[in-house]
Amino acid sequence: MKRVSRKFAFIFMLILAMVILSACSSKNTGSEEGGTKDFGEKAKPIKIGVLASQTGGLESYGEQTLRGFELGLDYATDGTGEVAGRKIEFIVEDTETKPEVAVQKATKLLEEDEVDFLVGSSSSGDTLAVLPLAEEYERIMVVEPAAADTITGSEYNPYIFRTARNSSQDAVAGAAAIADKGVKIATLAPDYSFGRDGVAAFKEAALELGAEIVHEEYADPAATDFTSNIQKIIDSDPDYLFVVWAGANSPWNQIADMKVQDKGIKISTGAPDIAALATMEPLVGMEGFTVYYHNLPSNDINDWLVEEHKKRFDGDEPDLFTPGGMSAAIAIVEALKKTEGDADADTLIETMEGMSFDTPKGKMTFRPDDHQALQTLYAIKLEKKDGVPYPVPVLIRELSPEETAPPVRN
Q: Leucine-binding protein domain: from which residue to which, for each copy (predicted)?
């Protein structure tokens, strides 16, 4: 009996030792509450999927955004490419400026590459097509540079944050430049969400200032001949033509050829990227606004951007959407610093709502109501400068984030 008791006692002690060792091992190497799972998550890289137009009508916008995004990651991580001990990887996919392709590429990024974030895209149409995927897969999407109001308006979902300005911010700035009591204004815009949202927002702001919208003209986004569109505008006899446009196929040359200004119609618009500025010689003296021009902001981050961009890209200055790409990268890194590398979407939403962060355009803040970044825009006048082969946006005054804050439309 004693031998049997000793045997059972030995077995009991052996089982107890195994349980204790197992518990210690679980505590040290992982349980559902911390250990291996947390260590594994920390060891994994942060993956960011960037959607951009690398082909199609907005190819130049895609290139600008991608350059800015890469520079932004370098700036925000002090060149380490890491945040909170996790490496950052980004994967670029070409949407071809086609919504159906954007959906395919976004799905690939989410399912095959298992990205933690989406960024993009160059086209509002592409972006609107992808928004539901961010919600379905519960991934944060930082929208840049798409501007349609509906992105943070009627199509808003809580996983969407936008560093790009929206059409209403453009509209407030554009209306402030020309709208007044009794002023008659016609508009010209591309016939898709960016153009129609832009005109709707401008019309709202202009009417509040007492102006009258006498004609709205929408052109095929891929058009190269604007003759009939411009003639309809001339026939409406406005005081001003306000143009909302994006893409290489701009209407400026035909506006000049058809002598719109000679007919007493003043032109106003947002100053575009450098390539399009080169076609705006007939508009020297025009007053309008711009999202960015490289010598308008005065801050250390913009100084770094201009200097570094010239170093890396054959002396070229950053263009219209370069700082937006940089701002998107900075926003992601700053959010991950605050969460100590936790890329859980619900944690990030709580962190990013109301979050302020410094950018080449000064301080931006994600408004909690709709996750739109409030930001500075610039009232400008186009002038000729010696040695510069295009009309240059010259600062009239900065338009503060509070001044350009758009209506909440979600």
A: 45-384
Beta strand pairing status for 362-366 and 373-374?
antiparallel
List of residues 6+ apart from 209 with CB closer than 8 A: 175, 176, 179, 180, 181
All structural domains of the chain: 45-165+296-375 (3.40.50.2300), 168-290+378-399 (3.40.50.2300)
Tell me the one-letter amino acid at 173.
A
Measuring CA to CA, which residue among 59, 49, 72, 53 is closest to residue 318? 72
| pLDDT of res. 186 | 98
Rounded Cα distance between 288 and 221, Å, is: 22
Contact between 33 and 23 under an 8 Å Cβ cutoff? The reply is no
- For residue 206, what pLDDT is reported? 94
What strand order describes the sheet that includes 356-359?
A: 356-359, 362-366, 373-374
Hey, which residues does 399 pair with through a beta bridge?
377
Rounded distance between C-alpha atoms, residue 131 and residue 102, angstroms: 10
**What confidence score (pLDDT) does residue 403 get?**
87
Residues of the chain with pLDDT under 70: 1-42
- CA gap 196, 54 in Å, rounded: 24
Residue 288: C-alpha distances to residues 145, 198, 263, 333, 396 (Å): 20, 15, 20, 33, 9
- Tell me which DSSP letter residue 195 carries: H
Cis preceding linkage at 145, omega within 30: yes
**Tokens standing for 281?**
């010689």
Q: Is 71 exposed, middle or buried (0-12, 13-18, 19+ CB in 10 A)?
A: buried
Supply 57's token pair.
């009508």
Q: Which residues contact 355 (CB under 8 A, 6 or more apart)?
A: 331, 334, 335, 338, 365, 366
pLDDT at 197: 87
Residue 364 is predicted with a pLDDT of 98
Cα distance between the two ends of the chain: 80
pLDDT of residue 24: 45
Does an H or E element contain 88, and which?
strand 86-94
User: Does residue 250 have a cis bond before it (omega within 30 degrees)?
Assistant: no
- What is the rounded CA–CA span in Å between residue 55 and residue 118? 19
**Helix or strand run (H / E) with residue 196:** helix 193-208
CA nearest to 270, candidates 252, 288, 248, 294: 288
* Alpha carbon distance 288, 279 (integer Å): 16
